[in-house]
Amino acid sequence: MDNIIRKCLIVGLSIFSLSAISWTAQAEFPDRPIELIVPTPPGGGTDMTGRKLAEAAGEVLGQKVVVVNKPGAAGSIGMSVLTQVKPDGYTLAYVWNAPLTIVPHTMDVPYKTSDLIPITQVTGGTPLIFCVKPDFPAKTGQEFVDHIKANPNKYTYGNDGIGATVQLAGERIFQPLGMNLRAVPFGGAGETLKNFLGGHVDIYGGSIPPILGHVKAGKARCILVTTAQRSSALPDTSSAGDLGLSDKATELFRGVIGPAGLPADRLAILQKAFAKATHAEVVTTYLKKRGEVPIGSTSDEFKKKILSEYAANASILKGLGLSKN
Amino acid sequence: MDTIISLANGFSIALEPWNIFYCVIGVLWGTIVGVLPGLGPLAGLALLLPLTFKLDPNSAIIMLAGIFYGAMYGGSTTSILVRIPGEAASVITCIDGHEMAKKGRAGPALVVSALGSWFGGTVSVLVLMLFAPLLSELMLTVGPPATFSLMVVALILMGLVGSSSTLKTFTMIVAGLLLGTVGLDAMSGVARFTYGSLHVMDGISFVAMALGLFGISEILLNLEKVADLRPIKPTFKSLTPTFKDIKDSAPAVGRGTVIGCLFGIVPGISHVISTFVSYALEKKLSKFPEEFGTGRIEGVAGPETANNATTGSSMIPLLVLGIPSIPATAILLSALMIHGIEPGPQLINDHPGVFWGLIASMYIGNLILVILNLPLVGLFVNLLRIPYGYLAPLVIVISVVGVYTVNASAYEIWLMAIFGVLGYFLRKMKFDVAPLLLAVILGDRIELAFRRSLTISDGDFSIFIESTSSVVFLCVLVIIIMLQLLAWLLGYRKKDFEDGDAN
Asked: Which domains does chain A have, with CATH numbers?
């Protein structure tokens, strides 16, 4: 038994000392692994695409990119961690819209958008979708709008949480058109789908992949996508653009960001590497399978995208009474 | 007949040498993550997921599912040996399991929980195979109103759990419900009782609380009598269950299986609820209810069987509807999607190999698990030979590492320490902490289900009696209360239920 304890101690000590080794030599950036914070639990869309991206970016950079999950508080824990690290480019984060453009409006978080530097937008173009049961009276997007307006406060739509992406994307369209629906928050698309199929809520609100199979099986009919363009997966479904609301469109996007103060030369290296990784074959095939479009934008383009959505969400959230300001 | 042919095809896939190999890897890894506190099936799946990208879809899903149900086996080990629940479904096992270990009967406790797990797991695969489409329809009828009604039943039954007096048990339940309100309110997005801290925004970490209240407090309590603690020397005889053990646990295993399969239709929480429903039932039916909490083998056999009997049901929404009902199955879903298999109503027809291969592999996997676990019992029990002076720091180190791995947050280590001290004082004052922990798990879900129901009905309370499945659960509730009242009127008042009827 003593032997086992001794072995445990040896293993423990060696792990400890390995982690304590510090890299002091100055060499070309990056000369050691890069940590990529993913502010969600493992297994979700952001985590899965992030892991694929990390794999490809590691090959481009010649250094491993390691995914570290820092979940919690709608992604804001991971973001706060990012703003507290040394801005040397060795700690970055991979996030979706919400922690950048929604959460700072609704919660008291210890970070501002200006504390972060957008590096590159990795995915985009992914719509959120609203679907109804096949026997729902409205067939097209416009009929849907008219029917809801004629029946205010009658219908419920499931979404992924109050003040979260689906609700905001929906309300951006519903509010200006004067549509009044009751939002029922669930713990994610799966739970929303279950309650929609079981008839507990009238409308499914969420991403496309979970419901696609049920549309094909004739159990659901999709009526509105939140993007300006129609979705290639469901070409018959009206888009925000069809309703004349292209400027109110929302798409799900994900991208790589770093802490403010990141030196310009390192930012350039990282932008180039992650944009290249975004278009690596292993990443693009995977993204296409999920119905997401690889982007790989410049830092400035990504910044503009974040700031415009951030500004648009401010007024929506005020209208919903969810803004903390 | 179709089922038999399909199953035969499934076995021909699952019995391919490589698939058996991946099944073994899966269940072995599942057992390990189940044994290690903090590292649950979720993290275990996420860690091995990248490995499956290059496998064929059948092998990938067989291995990943193995991790999922394998973790249910491992969870009981630390509960029994060191009173640390490996995961939420093993909280109940701590109560009698660890008492058995203290009496030198860790062997029988581990053996019975492995055999019970195997039986419950196998029956639940049988249920999955025979009734999957039917059960999936049934699951869809369970909306927020029915979930709420079920959890009220669970809450009432929780009064029977725990070894302290009824008043103390209910005090703990109320305290747990209150602690459960901490964090972001999902219905309004408002942060409650967080005092500006982001760390408790998602509620108080369950792992930190479980490790603190159970593991750390146990060590603190033992420090007082450390001089008297002698390592238990297990003999071969003490490893194997006696005939009486088998006789006592067999009915509990049977009932646990039924409970697990029944409650399985409310996936997401059933693996926890089924454990204390089983415990409460065993205690009620026992001729020696007062001995529960001092190491009754039924208190281990029932709940451990019940939580494994829910694993098959948890797979039903995933396989039949493409809906992940719990976080662990969400990872299985993404694994399917990576391989270009579109989960949803067409899965069984479009990819029969995946569906039936998985079913067959679950029979095999459960068998491998029991074969794997029985010899391990001897090894695990030997842990108790370690002098307490070494064992206690080892447990603390494992707990600290475990709690840190969940969210990579040092803050939660502090939280664990605080709950350790709290647990120490509570247990000093003869409060059982199990109901507290279970109430925290139920607390925010019961509230959410209630408020979701009322949002759907626009404030109309009749929604709770309009849904058939909700009415079923409410009837169960009425029956339980009536039985209690009847027992009370007839004078069969049991010590543990003095105040229970008032609810």
From this structure: 33-125+250-320 (3.40.190.150), 127-248 (3.40.190.10)
